[in-house]
Amino acid sequence: MKKLLAVFLEILMIISLCACSLEADVPHPPAYVPVREPVATYGYEKAAAPKGQGQSCTAEGSGYQTKGEPVPHASGKYSVRVNNLKISTFYIHNGMIEGGGPIDFTPAGSSFSGYFIRISGLKDKALEEDINRRIYEKYAALASDRSIPPYVGAKLKEKALQDWEQNSQFCYVDVGLNAENMLSLCFTSHRSFVNKSKTAYFTVYAMDGMNLDLRTGNEISIRELFADDVDGLAWLDHQMEDYIAKHDSYDDRTSFTMGWYDTGLSLAMPFPGIAEDQKYYINGFSGQLNLIFDYNTPWVYCDYMARSLSFDIVPVAAYSGRFPSAKSIFEDETADYLLLSRYYDRSDMVTENRNEDMNVGSSGLKDYVHVSSSYLKDMTKEQIAYVSTGSDTVNKYLELYYSKRDELKELYNGYVSSHLNISDYCSRVGDFVNVRSTMQLNFTRTVYPSDVLYEETVQRNLVFRGDSSSPESFSTIFRPGVYWEERLYNAFKANWQRVLDTPDGEGLDQGLRYLDADYVRGLGIDEKALDAFFMEASRSASSFSMGNRYLELFYGSALRDLSMKYFGHTGGEKGEKADNDILFTVETLVSGVYYRDLGAEDMTIF
Question: Taking the CB of residue 535, how many other CB atoms lie within 10 A of it?
Answer without folding.
Answer: 18
